[in-house]
Amino acid sequence: MPHGYEWIIIGAIGLLIFGKRLPGAAKGIGQSILEFKKGMKSGANEAETPAQIDDAAAPKARFDPQTGKPLE
Predict the structure, then answer these.
(1) How much helix, strand and coil, in percent to the nearest 5, is found in the chain?
(2) Is the dihedral of CA 49, 53, 57, 59 positive or negative?
Protein backbone atom coordinates (compact mmCIF):
# COMPACT_ATOMS: atom_id res chain seq x y z
CA MET A 1 0.00 0.00 0.00
CA PRO A 2 1.27 3.48 -0.83
CA HIS A 3 2.06 5.81 2.06
CA GLY A 4 2.20 9.62 2.45
CA TYR A 5 4.06 11.22 -0.44
CA GLU A 6 3.30 8.25 -2.73
CA TRP A 7 -0.40 9.18 -2.61
CA ILE A 8 0.51 12.74 -3.61
CA ILE A 9 2.45 11.46 -6.64
CA ILE A 10 -0.42 9.12 -7.62
CA GLY A 11 -2.91 11.99 -7.25
CA ALA A 12 -0.77 14.32 -9.40
CA ILE A 13 -0.51 11.70 -12.15
CA GLY A 14 -4.28 11.14 -11.95
CA LEU A 15 -4.90 14.87 -12.32
CA LEU A 16 -2.64 15.04 -15.36
CA ILE A 17 -4.40 12.14 -17.04
CA PHE A 18 -8.04 12.78 -16.02
CA GLY A 19 -7.95 16.54 -15.29
CA LYS A 20 -10.38 17.62 -18.01
CA ARG A 21 -12.92 14.91 -17.17
CA LEU A 22 -13.02 15.37 -13.39
CA PRO A 23 -15.51 18.30 -13.24
CA GLY A 24 -18.01 16.44 -15.43
CA ALA A 25 -17.60 13.26 -13.41
CA ALA A 26 -18.05 15.13 -10.13
CA LYS A 27 -21.19 16.83 -11.47
CA GLY A 28 -22.61 13.47 -12.59
CA ILE A 29 -21.90 11.90 -9.21
CA GLY A 30 -23.53 14.84 -7.42
CA GLN A 31 -26.68 14.61 -9.57
CA SER A 32 -26.84 10.85 -9.00
CA ILE A 33 -26.67 11.35 -5.24
CA LEU A 34 -29.46 13.97 -5.36
CA GLU A 35 -31.71 11.71 -7.44
CA PHE A 36 -31.05 8.82 -5.05
CA LYS A 37 -32.01 10.95 -2.05
CA LYS A 38 -35.19 12.14 -3.79
CA GLY A 39 -36.09 8.54 -4.57
CA MET A 40 -35.51 7.49 -0.99
CA LYS A 41 -37.74 10.30 0.31
CA SER A 42 -40.55 9.53 -2.15
CA GLY A 43 -40.28 5.82 -1.39
CA ALA A 44 -40.55 6.51 2.33
CA ASN A 45 -43.61 8.72 1.76
CA GLU A 46 -45.32 6.04 -0.31
CA ALA A 47 -44.64 3.41 2.35
CA GLU A 48 -46.11 5.58 5.12
CA THR A 49 -49.37 6.39 3.33
CA PRO A 50 -51.71 3.42 2.91
CA ALA A 51 -52.98 2.64 -0.55
CA GLN A 52 -56.46 3.99 -1.13
CA ILE A 53 -58.85 1.52 -2.73
CA ASP A 54 -61.55 2.97 -4.93
CA ASP A 55 -64.77 0.98 -4.46
CA ALA A 56 -66.13 2.17 -7.80
CA ALA A 57 -63.11 0.73 -9.62
CA ALA A 58 -63.33 -2.63 -7.85
CA PRO A 59 -65.10 -5.32 -9.89
CA LYS A 60 -68.58 -6.29 -8.71
CA ALA A 61 -69.17 -9.87 -7.55
CA ARG A 62 -71.21 -11.96 -9.97
CA PHE A 63 -71.75 -14.87 -7.61
CA ASP A 64 -72.72 -15.17 -3.97
CA PRO A 65 -69.60 -16.25 -2.08
CA GLN A 66 -71.63 -18.39 0.36
CA THR A 67 -73.81 -20.33 -2.05
CA GLY A 68 -72.08 -19.87 -5.40
CA LYS A 69 -75.37 -18.91 -7.05
CA PRO A 70 -75.40 -16.02 -9.55
CA LEU A 71 -76.40 -12.61 -8.23
CA GLU A 72 -79.06 -10.58 -9.98
Answers:
(1) 55, 5, 40
(2) positive
> Over its length of 72 residues, how does the chain's per-residue pLDDT go in tens digits?
878 899 999 989 988 988 888 888 889 999 999 999 998 888 766 655 555 556 566 667 788 888 888 887
pTM of the model: 0.43
Largest CA distance in the chain: 86
What's the CA gap between 22 and 24, in Å, rounded?
Answer: 5
Size of the chain, expressed as the number of residues it contains? 72
